[in-house]
Amino acid sequence: MIVDCHTHFDGAALYDKMLADQRRTGADQFNIVVVPRTGDRADWPMAAALWFKRRQPDRVYVFGGLDYTGLFDGGRDEPDVPLVEQLQRLMDLGCDGLKMLCGKPDTRKAIGRPMDGPMYEPLLDRLEETGFPLVWHIADPPEFWNPDLVPLWAKQQRWWYDETFPTYQQIDREALSAFQRHPRLNVVLAHFFFLSQDLPAADELLERFPNLHLDLAPGVEMFHNFTRDPAAAREFFVRRADRILYGTDIGAGRHCTGEKRGWMVRHWLETDDEFEVPDDPLMTPDDRPPLKGIALPADALEKIYAANFHRIVGARKPRPLNEPAVDELIGGMP
């Protein structure tokens, strides 16, 4: 069985494409993670994710997002609805977990609140108490803070962070502080916590915080970093197979990404081939050397592809929806 733990979905018009993309990657189930509403997004995809889950109740998990509406009006300390109340609503709706993006540099800048600050404490306390699963995007590749080091595809999109953004080091400090205060968080750190360039640091993190997990949703930089020493990467993945989850980020960028991401991640995990990064607007053009796979054994693949996710969410099937509450949220969607 294969579960894609990290996908996005923006609306009903993309329903058939999403199903086709997941079918071509071989995924039996997938998890839609919902980005937050940060005051400038009218088409917040929370309703669309639950609409999808209603249509595919045995196949689709949803990790709901937070709504920061009101936080940007007059320097308020809380959004209109306190975060811990939003978490309870997500649970009541039948969501399977929570997605947080407050550690991504542009979102962290927009929100303007530290991840280890008082606004998040009640939310993190509640997540610890309940064990409710969390996918948390924290930071971005370290090279994105230097326009001379960003990869070619990002440079062409003028995607890097200047001095107006929190630094990589600041975001990392906030995250570690939050982990120390809340060591029982049932959390998956998206995109390998952007530690693919430093496997000893990733190993130390997993040793220090036994409830943390890492997902493999590209950032293609992680696979280039692993390719620099395939033997070391393979040893790490075999030894830490119970802490790593398969993910693709299919649907990112309003579905400019597709099934080739799944092919790339799976080909890297399952074979020792050398191969080029497939065309994808958030991975190419790519002028770096080809990737080289690590050909994991079947028992490691089984954990990474499905067993770890099912253990984290506590079930092999998605939670049932609270139909009246979902009806109220999704409005006129068919």
Please sum up the structure shown:
The chain has 334 residues and is an alpha/beta fold. The protein has 14 helices and 10 strands.
What topology, given as strand order, has the largest sheet?
1-2-3-4-5-6-7-8
What's the CATH topology name?
Answer: TIM Barrel
Q: Please provide the count of β strands.
A: 10
Total number of helices:
14
Stretches where pLDDT is under 50 for at least 5 consecutive residues are: none
**If you average the pLDDT, what whole number results?**
94
Q: What is the helix fraction of residues, given as a range? A: 40-55%
Beta-strand residue percentage: 5-15%
Could you tell me the radius of gyration in angstroms? Answer: 19 Å
Q: How many domains in all?
A: 1
User: Given the C-alpha coordinates, what overall shape results?
Assistant: globular
Q: What's the CATH architecture?
A: Alpha-Beta Barrel
Compressed to H and E, one letter per element, the order equals: EHEHEHEHHEHHEHEHHEHHEEHH
What does the largest sheet look like?
A: 8 strands, parallel
Task: Provide tags for this entry.
two-stranded antiparallel sheet; 334 residues; alpha/beta; TIM Barrel; 14 helices; 8-stranded parallel β-sheet; 10 strands
